[in-house]
Amino acid sequence: MVDALLLAVPEHTGDTVLHGAFAVLLHRHTAQDEIGMSDPVARVFRFDARVTFRELLRATEPAFPQGPLTKLTCGRSDEGWSVRAELPSGLMDAEAAARMLARFETVLAVLADDPDIQVADVPVVSGEDEDGARSVGGSLTPPVGTVTAAFEAQASRTPDAIALESEAGTLTYTELDRRAEAAAGALSARLDSATTPFVGVYMVRSPDLVVALVAIMKAGFGYVPIDPDSPMRRTRYLVDNARLDLVLCAEEDLAPLREAGVRATTVAALTRESPPSAPRRPPGPHTPIYMIYTSGSTGEPKGVVNHHAGVLNTLLWRQETWPLSAADKVLQKTSLTFDISAWELFWPLVSGATLVLAKPGGQRDLRYIKQVIRERGITLAHFVPSVLDVFLGEANLAEYCGTLRRVLCSGEALPAATVARFHERLPCELHNLYGPTEASIEVSHWQAPPDHTGATVPIGKAISNTRLYVMDAWLRPQPVGAVGELCIGGAQVALGYHGLPGMTAERFVPDPYGGHGARMYRTGDLARARANGVIEYLGRIDDQVKIRGFRVELGEIEAALRAVPGVDAAAVVARGDAADRQLVAFVVRGADTDDMMLRTELGRVLPAYMIPDSFVTSPTLPMTPNGKLDRRALVRHAGMEHTVPDEAAQLSELESTLCRMFSETLGGTSVGVHDDFFAHGGHSLTAVKVVNRVNTTLGVEIDVWTLFEFPTPAELAQELDL
Predict the structure, then answer these.
(1) Count of domains observed in the chain
(2) Contact in structure between 146 and 284 (CB atoms under 8 Å)
(3) How far is it, in rounded angstroms, from Cα 536 to Cα 544?
């Protein structure tokens, strides 16, 4: 095989040819059009994948492997050519090395047959490899029903069971069904789902919210959640973009919405109506169930449309995997604008369990959450990993969470350290799940055991009726252990982006393994498959980040910044990990454009979690040699330490202590005695952290709401009165 390759490129030595062939193999392991990332085996210097192998051999030496691959030697004996690759101890086991050797033989054979083949076209995947790089969900008949029908069937089976608990009281399954039925009739009389497929929901957590969602689905509509805390300008954009003819809201929100030109009503008003018999269009499996807006790289949020069959599939899989009964209570605390809220709401309601609603805003107070878990007897709860990490710092956790049987984690990468802390503090199960909004909540699962010793936590295997693929830049399967883009096929793939056919066609592409007409979603996430079929999440291909579980496109924040008068250019980067992750904005601006003005202007168009934690004035933005923004340089600069203003001589000891606590909790951001914690980048998670530090250090007992009421060191010091 090697001799044939040398005959094909006689102008090069055997050593050069074999090094070049190995560079091709490593290139295909990284899956990208141009190499610029580390591979577990070696680092290949950047070269264009569209060059041919012969052209690559003419390139300079830096094109060939370097890095963890400590030595690659080639030799010839009477028995033929031999290649010896030396690797650091523990980097690769014998099975992985054997797979790499088999792939190298495949590459050599291909290159010997055609040395003018482009590097990007060299196959390295065998049939066994191809199977290993796919994770296919287990057996469960694909759903043909709807979430609505599943709820109605459960209400018929357990009419007098408690469906919902909240601080406002309880509703039985019959009471919830009847109220939703009345509201659905009024909706059907007002709107035609054939021409107006969506109804907006501008409501905080309450029994009326649940009634509204069930009613909307019963009437054949999909719901569009709108956060009442969002700026009105953003609310107006969502209403216009989704073409909403009606938004359901609380009584106190009617006037502001109507003043903004939004047609709105309340659930109470709908249930009071006695509409004439109106034709009802019941939902089908592929009827939209909701449209959730996510951050958009173009500067505007985009609506992701999911369908009943996809959501029902994940609910049925959950019920098959972790059966709920009338004895179970599921805590609902996630914002409706976050798709995890859908399973929190609907899984208990299609399974005969009780849905327990946290009070509005209660998700920000982790002391309240642990009290609710104990007082309500919660058996199942969800946490975003960064929130879970902070929650694990609460005192007497095992005492408060004795009823918990299972905690589900998703929304961002779960750190191994958090897994270890969890099992030290809580005796229940911990499960890591993964899934984008474009695939009906979550599509993979891995149980995190107490004895997990890996440096990373995998996202596991595909759930039922779902397929996960690790693919290269040309959508070909990557071999086991190689890095590629994670793609999702199967029952839970969303319908697409609302009103964006071009973007839908770009991200939702034909599924080569799903049969005629099947589609898969390109996530933009980097992953690799282990030999046992478990998938590891490795990060993002693009600039998307997760902030406390919310998906954030940095480009949307940058576009909003550039629209502020006095801003000439802007770039945003994320620094820190998990609960400590912060957004830092670098701004080329005039002298009159201060941080408070930027926060105020951004607050008119962006939700709070997208407002940068700090702003850095820069004369210019750094660029790479090819003219692109150098985000790595910005990230390095964002990590520089900040100093606290020199006010020590004017401050009391308590004020100085609080200033220091605020600053350290905010990652070193400069904080003065009259500076607002939240105006300097504080949010619900950092608020919990600083409150815990105040309580522990000063021996007091305050809750997070105290900080919201007294957000400056001076005000908080006066309130503490120590």
Answers:
(1) 4
(2) yes
(3) 18
